[in-house]
Amino acid sequence: MPLHKIIHINENTTAYFWHITEDVTSLFRAVSLRDTSLFRLEGMKSEEHQRGFLAVRMLLQHLGYTDYDLTYDEAGKPHLSDGKHISISHSHEFSCICISTELMGIDIEKLKEKTLKIAPRFLEIKHLENLSTPDKIAKATVIWGVKESIFKIKNEVGISFPEHIFEDEFNLIDGKCSAILQFNNQIEKFKIHFYNVEAYIFVCAFPKK
Ligand SMILES: CC(C)(COP(=O)(O)OP(=O)(O)OC[C@H]1O[C@@H](n2cnc3c(N)ncnc32)[C@H](O)[C@@H]1OP(=O)(O)O)[C@@H](O)C(=O)NCCC(=O)NCCS
Hints:
Elements: E1 3-10, E2 13-19, H1 24-30, H2 35-43, H3 47-62, E3 70-72, E4 78-80, E5 85-91, E6 94-100, E7 105-110, H4 113-117, H5 133-154, H6 161-164, E8 165-167, E9 176-183, E10 186-197, E11 200-207
Antiparallel strand pairs: 1-2, 2-6, 3-4, 5-6, 7-11, 8-9, 9-10, 10-11
Helix pairs in contact: 1-3
The structure holds coenzyme A (COA).
């Protein structure tokens, strides 16, 4: 399946989604990879991970980039050769990349009951009060995505989701929320956009200016 969806988050920022229906061999034949990527691909234990990784390269190629335009820093954060910001996420049959002239972080996460089960470990449980079970799952998944996205922006060792990132109260219907990071004696604010993409939640976070 080719490109599945494009979301224009703001005038500087666009997210692209690949619905992965191809097998590893077809994806592998369709992309060209630098040696370090080949090495990484060979080391991946699951085919799902390999397909997610290759689908990111399909998205890059769709946009006129190749794997040669993508590098990673020591922490694993991706960077594009033309200086634009990129953030990457994959979950089961979806891979997505977001490209922007602004700093941002993204996360895509499948809606599943397990996220609700582990919710007390990473969110304020009062934020799930008075919701139906499907809405509780959706809200917990958004909050998880918020924390992953902020982590990807900051890319700093030692950030803990429950201890340092706090979501403000929000309604699912709004598609927007905010959060703060309290880390290293500093408080930083973030604005968040979130979307339903099939049976997934997609989150994009930006530092507040
Ligand atoms: C790095 C991390 C954010 C990746 O998230 P994930 O849900 O496992 O996977 P995703 O598919 O959403 O994202 C993976 C992509 O994130 C990007 N990434 C990895 N490390 C990154 C970093 N330090 N900064 C920014 N982006 C990073 C990569 O592009 C990677 O994909 P690729 O290697 O195939 O290009 C996550 O594993 C992590 O370390 N989280 C913080 C630790 C933590 O506090 N966890 C929970 C505690 S309750």
